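Batch manifest, entry 17 of 40.
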Amino acid sequence: MALDNTDVKQKILIADDSEINRALLIDILGDGFEFAEAADGVEAVDILQNGYADISLVLLDIHMPRLDGFGVLEAMNKRGWIDDTPVIIISADSDSDFAQRAYNLGVTDYIRRPFDAYVVRRRVQNTLMLYEKQKKLMGLVAEQVYELQKNNSMMINILSHIVEFQNEESGPHIQHIRIITEILLKGLCELYPRYQFSQAEIALIGTASALHDIGKVSIPSAILNKPGRLTPEEFAVMKTHSAIGASMLDVLPIYKDEPLVKTAYQICRWHHERYDGRGYPDGLKGDEIPIAAQVVSLADVYDALTSERVYKKAIPHKEAIRMIKNGECGAFNPILMNVLDKVADEIYGELHGATSESYDDDLRKITAEILQKNSISSSGRTVSLLERERKKYMFFASMSDEVMFELSYTPYLLTFLNGGGKRLGVSETIVPDPMNSGELHECCGEDKLKEISALLHAATPENSIIRCEGDIKIDGDVRHCKLVAQAMWSSGAEPELIGAIGKIYRAD
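Output type: structure tokens
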């Protein structure tokens, strides 16, 4: 499906204390955009505060009253706006330290005055297209991460529910352990900076927690589901499930070196260890116990207390918290007790009204981390590479007698390269709605433009080349010419027409 952006314009914020400079940039960029203007940094931040999601790009001056450009960038970084809204600095300052500082604060590009109008248009267009592609890519990666997480969780939960079925425990137990584990880990990272788990690592530990009792498949159901107190002999058998579960994972022929399986091994074997060394199976003490196993251990005890079992009634939330803190369920890491204090209400709220919203938020954050780690971002270097390619293209165009052009739907504009517009007797850049432009009608004819537009919209990613011919006014005379163009498509499950590149040449 082709993009139809004639009614939807991207919004650019121009922050410059010079009204003349703002007017000049608006005139250069043309009617293909909407504009917001700020006379200083404070106004710029206010505009972003009230609707940064509507701003597609910020053109920012450095030297402004009240709050300079660096202050605006620092505010955008503090609020996370810089991740979604590209910034191009346009400044007369030639100090390289200024440019370096701007790039360190996340700007996409740095244009020095005096500037070439064409360069400004191209860099603005390139930046907007790069960020649009990044958003599409982020959505695609999010879908892939979601599917991967869903499939992993589904398979692990099926396996874990087999254990739950044999154990006659409630199905939500596994989901509860994951939720509590992730809440505790996030609280741990907030209270204690030395523990810095990424969102992806927290999700991995949460997923691995589902396998904490997998060893119970080896325990006779008569012991697992005994309504009364276990005898010492029966309890000795029950305690073997942690070591057995770890052994089941350790002998996997293919996957035992995967991070998920390694984490699950730690949780399986040591989630019954206690901070004072009185747990099992290995009697580990203090920080000898991996933190993932400590967190799952606490989550497991809390859910066991607050859930109904064949041998007991459910204990209320506040009473369960009190029992854990009083040491009635064994000794736990003191820092985890502090975390439990902080997140107790959140745990109760999530377990009694859990939705998928927090999970979706996690996926978005995980996606962002994946993109960041793989350097999938728009940067000054990226724009520099694009500019280098453009210069190559312009050089080869200058050696040819052909008129080369680029059509973009985002924003909707038509650009002729290397003086091609002059040869056709039209503007070098035509916006908005170039296919209905009067000057193009005079050059090519309204019917021919409709034919070209129809061919582009009929193209597909597999058949993206279009050709046509007809009489066109070129170099002051009407000549029989040919046009060949390649339609450009977005990536993704449903590609969209985003523009075309092509050339016009005389057939005689």
